[in-house]
Specification:
The complex is a heterotrimer. Helices cover 47% and strands 13% of the residues of chain A. By secondary structure, chain A is an alpha+beta fold. Chain A has three domains: 186 residues, D-Maltodextrin-Binding Protein, domain 2, CATH 3.40.190.10; 188 residues, D-Maltodextrin-Binding Protein, domain 2 (3-Layer(aba) Sandwich), CATH 3.40.190.10; 46 residues. In chain A, the strands form six sheets. A four-stranded mixed sheet of chain A has the order 8-11-7-12. In chain A, a hairpin with a 5-residue loop joins strand 14 and strand 15. Chain B folds into two domains: 52 residues, no CATH class; 232 residues, MetI-like fold (Orthogonal Bundle). Helices cover 71% and strands 0% of the residues of chain B. By secondary structure, chain B is an all-alpha fold. The relative contact order of chain B is 0.12. Chain C is mainly alpha-helical. Chain C is 70% helix and 0% strand. Classes of the chains: A alpha+beta, B mainly alpha, C mainly alpha. At the A-C interface, helix 4, helix 12 and helix 19 of A face helix 9 and helix 16 of C. Chain C: It comes from Aquibacillus salsiterrae. Chain C: It is a multi-pass membrane protein. Chain C: This is ABC transporter permease subunit.
Chain lengths: 535, 293, 323
Amino acid sequence: MKKSLGLLIVTVFMLVFSVACSNESGGESSGEKGNNATGEAGTGPLNVSLTLMGGPKTPDAWVNEALAKDLTDHLDRDVTVEDIFLPSWSDAKTKINLMMSDKSSMPDVLWFWDMNKEYKQWVDAGVLQDLTPYLQSKGQNIINYYNRENLFYSWDPSGKIYRIPGDVSEPGTMTTMIRKDWLDNLGLDVPTTIDEYVDVLRAFTFDDPDGNGKDDTYGISGENLYRAFAPFFYAYGVDVEQFMIQDDGTIKYGSLMPETREVLELLQGLYKEGVIDPRVLTNTEQQDVDDIMANGKIGSIYRWVAFFNPESTYNLAFKEKNPDGEYIAIDPIKGPSGFSSDVPSDAIGWSFLSVTGAAEEPETVVDVIDRMASPETYRLITFGQEGELYTIDENGVYDSKLSVDERNKLGLGNYNWYVQRKDEANLENTPEVNELFAARDKSSRPMREKIFFVKSLNRPMWTEYATDINTLRDETFWGIISGNLPITAYDDFVDQYGALGGDKIDEETNKLYSEQKNQWEEFNAWYDENIEPYK
Amino acid sequence: MVGLSKGEKIFNYCNYVFMVLLLILMLYPFWYILMGSLSDSKLAVGGGLFLIPVGFSVDAYTAILQNSAFLSSLGTTLITTIAGTAIGTFFTATTAYALSKSRLRGGVFFAFIVLFTMLFNGGLVPNYLLIKELGMMNSLWALILPNAINAFNVFVMMSFFRGIPNELEEAAKIDGANDLTIFFRIVLPLSKPVLATIGLFIAVFYWNDFFSTILYINDKDMWQLQAYLRNLIENTSMAIRGGSGTAVTAQMNVSPFTIRMASIIIATVPILIVYPFLQKHFAKGAMIGSIKG
Amino acid sequence: MEQRRQKLTLHASLQPKTKMSKTSIFMKDVVRDKYLYLLLLPGLLYLLVFKYLPMYGVVIAFKDYNILMGVMESPWVGFEQFQRLFRTPDFMQIFMNTFIISFLKLLFGFPAPIIIALLLNELRNMAFKRFTQSVLYLPHFLSWVVFAGIITAFLNPVDGVVNFIIKAFDGTPIDFLTSKEYFRSILVSTEVYKEMGWGTIIYLAAMTGVNPDMYEAARIDGANKLQQMWHITLPAIRPVILIMLILSLGNILEAGFLQVYLLYNPLVYDVADIIDTYVYRRGIQEANYSLATAAGVFKSVIALVLIYTANKIVKKSGNEGLW
């Protein structure tokens, strides 16, 4: 006992000393990678560090060597890739913030998402590099893949580009799904208008569509998000979470448009009838909705197109439990005015790549990203080598020779969202699913044109007041849908909106709208001069 | 020993019945998780009571265990838990013992200093900068030291030390012992129950810690076990509220549910095994017994 | 050394008229307890380095924090962050929710482990006792994410077990998680359920200090089980109970972020929205370390006042407190 105690005390003292000593050398030891600081391409060995969020995050995996080898061949110099795996989603922003707080801990390439405020601070502090010249010299794959609009949202009005999108989703990713087998059982047609759709949902609820003699089905279910009711809101031409362009050219928050009231009233009625699955009020996780879908008691749901990939978990689980069940994707439901649209994705992208001040050869680093964005290298690091790890049959259908676990072990997917290609280079989607994506592109267009996607990262009024407004909105809207509140509660919400800071938000957003139109002009001129010729 | 009275028999009977009911109630979630983790991933989607596995598969376990990062993270967590518990328990005890003596000049001030750290802390960035300045980034020390002593444990231990009869110390002093020898020879051996308790608290903290990894570790080979598992779970399922919906389309081939359940079992069982070994220190009258001997 | 000290004391008592100055009494006591200070030293040094050195970070509650400028360079904004928090239209409601939820958790969650520990203490079959103890603390290891998933599945109005039972008795299904009447009870009961067993460990450790002879004596005097618990076991562990009570007051505004966040929904904001969830929702619009720190400082100051007061009351009642 005594001996071990003495040992402990000695250890602690040694520790304190070692800490005190290492303190002096601590600051200098880092940041000595690369070999010249001029920004020009060197010839010696190159180490490039990347923050990674995607895939299984397998350390020292095959994919790391494959990429390093590919880059070594491409750049004709020794390249090592330093993978910095970010922790789980809920913690990764903390990690990014800490890494970016000091130059010695910055990665060469930073992958990040959201974080608008921080991004603005990084740009202001000059720790991110302007990518324009390097995109011109080395970024052909990148500028060919992203369209004009994609780059616009990452463009700084000073004529610089401090980030490029890491992943821009397909223009439309979600669709109204409906049970084909239930329609057949009940002898119904695929609904096209909102009235037909409501009738079908009622029939799904009350007419025992699965023929088991029990009253255990619901018309529609989904997560506790407004997009679960997209078939309704979008038929009326509103998205309650977006700023909508009005006929007179002004901007209005979707929640305030009178159509919203109509939809809420409609939903309230359907909920009361029992057409809407009450679990929609408490489903907060993906898993909940997966479970509900797999159990096969839901007639219609608004979810991802990717569901139709035969390998997707949802699909496999659903088929397992409902061998005769079949969901089909249908065209968006038409509203009273004949309007219809699916939910559009923005062109902004949801995650981004920046080259930090720690990168001593920014041009080479852009070259590295560009290489990763090329279809060949993208396929290599996402799916492995063709022939060895996967095959493509004559119909263009991708077939992996490996199980999910084996692919994870190789680290395939570690470099996800480093310019995620959604074109043919993305082999995983079956041709049918690709078709569905193409169809959503078209079907989401009407709403895309009505929504104002805000580019500005500087929205102080929105930042300050949006939480209170949205809290009241959510209480009111879900309260109305569930029947806890009368529909007149909606009018109270609209009345209170201004006083809660809504007036200031409206003023700010309308100003941003006109500014953004001007910026678009400026950007186009810039793009024609600085990007177009270098493609 | 007097024989059990009728009232005592009834009491004992009720007590046992109550405990058995409580047992079932407390055991169920773990049973649910265990059975869920052993289910077939496709069949498990859809939920249920999981009284027995739906289908049977150990795929979720192999998926977790075969990842090379699992073993290294388990190693990291074992080392930090053992070292952290040893260091933490010992220094919690020394601090608590000094504070337990009301005769100590400045004791109120010192107690307040300790309490203050329970309520206020500098936040993420200053802590991160400190560890960086100390040169501990990416080292095991960064996972051990920042959490070794905490105020709550010090106060709990302090209140136990106060319970040791003063007469014992007085007697030792007359025999020529000083405070150091009293602490090591008398107080520590008498305090096994509280040392085991606080040791368990500290061990569980280190075992469950993932946040230190986020703050101080870049090298994936040094991640703590819980950081590895959190990452694994979130990679296979994303909370709707948390992340961007579009991200989900990219990875939907792995069943989140069974992996999640299996990872809980893997993360919990090792630390559960520790408790029975500590239980012998909780025997009734342990303290008194040793005083007599 | 010990002899010399005894001599000194003797010396002092022999000359009662020579008054020693306060300083020299103080110094004498310090020298007497030098080994105690030696024991205290590593802990204090530790707290100084690992807790107090970074403590300057608290000032970002009074600043508009910019991570690249650092804590010191970021501009001062005085109490603006606090004002931003307080001017929220529902602040009073959010504050009261926080207080009520954590108070209820304390009210039910504090005595529960004591009662269970008392009952466990009465079990005679050692194997059963040890097994029960081990099982009772299992739920502590459930993460809220998983536990919340189980709760939601059990309580849901369509195919949840609880409503299945209600329906079996011809009742109307209740949507517990969207009901303002039930929501807080669910928070409190699930919290108590999860932590109750784990909480017993400390009290069981304290009960090892009770001399078994005392129970024997009490039984001979005809005391029944309940009387033994009340008159022997409880008084023996009272100091620990009081310390635990004082320390739990430090958490009086910690209503349990993850639990609430994972279980709540807009229909129960009225009764469920707490300071932490509110600050979190604001963080979705824009991460704000300063606002979050200000909320933390606000909670800590209240906790400090409560702990200080509770400690005073405990000491006035003749018991030992934190100091």
